Fold these 2 entries.
Entry 1:
Amino acid sequence: MIPKSINIAPSVRNALKDKKPVVALESTVLTHGLPYPENFSIFQTLENLLISQKVTPATIIVLDGIAYIGLEENMQMKLKQMLKNKENFSKLGMRDLPLAIAKEISGGTTVSATMLLAHLAGIKVFATGGIGGVHRNWESSLDISSDLIALSRIPVIVISAGCKAILDIPATLEVLETLAIPILGWKTNSFPLFYTSKSVYPIEKIDNLDIFVSFWKNHLALKGKGILIANPIPEEYSLPLDKLDSIINESIEQAQIKGIKGKELTPFLLDFLAQATKGESIKANLALLKNNVQLAAELAKALINKGS
Ligand code: PSU
Ligand code: MN
C-alpha cells in the first residue's frame, strides 16, 4: 500500500496504468549538485527531453513532507521558487525518508531514495548522473553510499555515467560485485568515470535493446534486484582523467582539513570540482545527464514494446 504522504502525479499514474513508458529522475542533483538557475533549467530540459520521446517524466523529490513522484505544473512553479530562494533542502537517502515525512521537511532524493520511491510507484527505469559508491579512505571512514545497498535490494534499472573518480573506483566495483549487482556497459567495455568516458576497469558490454530486454527478464526470473547501466559521457564532452586527478586529490585533502564527512562530503567535493574547473565540470555534468535520460527513454520504450 502506498502511504498518503506519497503523491504520484496523474500523468505518471495514467502512464503506468496504460502501460506507457515512464522514467524516474532524482533531485539531489537539483538541490545539492547544481546552482540556480542551472538546476531548474536542467530539470526542465530533462523533463522535456523525455516528453519529446513520448516518455512520461517522474522527477522525485520531497516537498514539505510529501514525496512527489512526478511534479504537476503548480508544484514545478513551487520548486522553482524554492530553488530560487535557496530554501533549505535536506539531502535524503533512503533511510531519511520516514523522518523527512514526519517532520514535513523538503529535500532532494539521492539515488537510493529515488530508487525506493520509483519502485513503490511501479517505475522500472531511472536515469541519474552518477551513483554514489565507496569513498577513498574507506579503510578509516567506512563511508560507503547506501546507493549500493539500494541497488542490491530494489529492482530498478539505474542508468548512470558510472561514478565519479572522487570515489575509490576499484573498491566500488568490488562492492558492486559482492552485492551481485550487474553492471552493463552501454556500447562500452570499460567502466565510465562520470566526466571521463573511459577507464582501465573492464565491464560487460551490451549494445542492443533486444539483449537488454532479454537480460532484464532473465535477471528478474533469477530473483535479481537493481542493475546499473553504465553509459559513458559523449566523447566531445569527456574530460581527461589526468587533468582532473590533481583537482580531485586537492578536493579530498581540503575535505579532510575542514573535517567534512558523511552526507556533506559528496556535495563538497562536487562543488570544489565545479570551481576548480571553472564550470567545465558543470557543462560535462549537463551533457551526461541528457545522454543518460536519452538512453533511459530508449530502454523504457524497449521494455514496453518487447513486452516486459
Ligand atoms: N555522485 C555524483 N553526483 C551526485 C551524487 C553522487 O556524481 O549528485 C549524489 C546522488 O544523489 C547520490 C548521492 O545518490 O550523491 C550519494 O551520496 P552519498 O555518497 O552521501 O551516499
Ligand atoms: Mn556517504
Note: The CA atoms of residues 111 and 278 lie 26 Å apart.
Entry 2:
Amino acid sequence: MEYEAVIGLEIHVQLKTRSKVFAGVATGFGEPPNELIDPTVLALPGALPVLNRESVEKSIKFGLMIDAKIPKICRWSRKNYFYPDSPKNYQITQLEKEAVVGAGAVEIELPGPARNIMGEHKFVRINHAHLEEDVGKLTHEGAVSLVDYNRAGTTLLEIVTEPDMHSAEEAVALLNALRMILATAGISDCDMEKGQLRCDANVSVRPKGSSELRTRTEMKNVNSLAGVRNCINFEIKRQVRTYESGEQVVQETRGWNADTGHTYSMRSKENAHDYRYFPDPDLMPVKIDDEWLARLKKDLPERPFDRQRRYMETLNLPYSTTSVFVPNRELCEYFESALAAYDKNPSLLANLVANEVLREISSGKHAFDNCPIPPKNLAELVKITDEGVISKQLAKDVFAEMWASGKSAAAIVAEKGLAQNFDSGELEKIVAEIVANPKNADAVAAFKGGSERVINVLKGQVMKASKGKANPAKVDEILRRLLA
Ligand code: ADP
Ligand code: MG
C-alpha cells in the first residue's frame, strides 16, 4: 500500500521586542545568567504583569502579512503546570479562540528542478497564532540542576498550521517562508541558532488518496531546518513500518535525537483540560480597533514573494538574482533607491547588489546604516558603465574602490585614468594590428567564411591589448568594418 504523510507544525517565534512581554526588563541573549530579571519575571509576591504593546503590534503585523483574520478583542489565560523553568507555576498564554491572530495562509515555494529555476508555489493554511511567554533555561550538571531566567518572559508568538503539508520538503519550505515574512516585517530575526524559532512537528501517515486524519505523534522543540527535515522523514518511515506490521501508531510526544537521527517516545500526549486553563485575572482583554489596524497596515512591507514577482515581471530580472536579495528587505530597499536614481539598466544594478553589495555586507564589516556606497553612487556606477565610460569588467574594480574609499565612481575613474579614453584612431590601429597578425589568419578566414562566433576571439585580443579600456561596442564596429 502507498502512504501519504500529513504534517502540521506549531512554530514558536521569539518576537523582536526590547522588553519582555509582561515586564519592563530587557530581552537579550548571551548575558550572564539571571541578569534580565525583575520581580515580575520571578513572580515575587505583589508583582503584576503589564502588557508590552510592541508584542501585540508585531503579532498583528504578522497576521496582516498573511491575510489573517484579526479579532476585535483578544484575551489572556493561565496554563497551569509546575516546572522549575518558570517561577510562576503557570504560563500566560491565549486560547485558540481568543488568540491575537486568526485564520490565514502562508505562500510557500517548493524546491525547483534546479537552483536557478523557480519551484512550485502553494499556500499552507494557518489555524491561528497566539501570544505567550517563553520560559527559562535549565542546565543539568550531575546531581545538580541550574536555572537561568534571562529568557523567561520573552515574547513568543506560537503559529499553528493546519495539517496541510505532505512532505518534509513542504515543512521546510513553510519555515523558510515564515522566516522571510517575519524578518522582512521586522517581527523577529528568526535566528534558529539563538533559539528564536523552534518548531514542534506533528506527523501522521494515511493511505494515499484517503482524507482521514490518523493518529499523530508530536516531535517537540526541533531547532534546526535539517532537524525538522530529518525527524519528519524518520517519523514517516517509522509510522509506515508500524502499520505494515499490523500495529497501531500511538498518540504521543516524541523527542528527536539529532546525533542518532531517531525519534524516541517521551510521554503520552497531555490533554488541554490537564492544564486547567482559566482567564488571567491580572490582565485586561486587548481591544483591537480599526484605527490601530489601519496604522499598522500603513507601514507593512510588500510580501517577499510579491516583491520577487514584481522584480521578475516589471524589471525582467532573472529568478536566480531575485532569490538572492528578496529575503533581505534592506538589500531590496537599497536596490530600489538606486533604481530610482537611474533606471536604465536594472539587470546590471541587480547583479551588483546581489553579488558585490551582499558579499561586502555579509563580510560583516559594514552594516547597512553605514554602508560606504550610498544608493545614488551605485546608480552612477551603472550609468557610466552604460554610457561606455568604463567596461563592465572594470565596473567591479571600481565598485571595490568605491567601497574601500567611499568616493564616487566618477571621482575614481578620473583619479585612476580608467576611462575608455582611446580615440578612434588609436583603437583602429590596435584592431588593424590584430587583424593583420599572421597568428590570427585562421580566425580571420573563418569569420569571412561565415563563422560569426570567431569574432569573439579577435575581440578578446583587442580588449587585452587595450588593457580593458576599449569600449566593446566600438571594437565590434571597427572589427566588422576592417573584416568586411
Ligand atoms: P492540540 O489539541 O494537541 O493542540 P491541534 O488540533 O491544535 O492539537 O493541532 C496541533 C497541530 O497538529 C496542528 O499544527 C495541526 O495541524 C496538527 N495536526 C492535527 N492533527 C493532525 C494529524 N492527524 N496529522 C498531522 N498533524 C496533525
Ligand atoms: Mg492546539
Note: The chain has a mean pLDDT of 93.
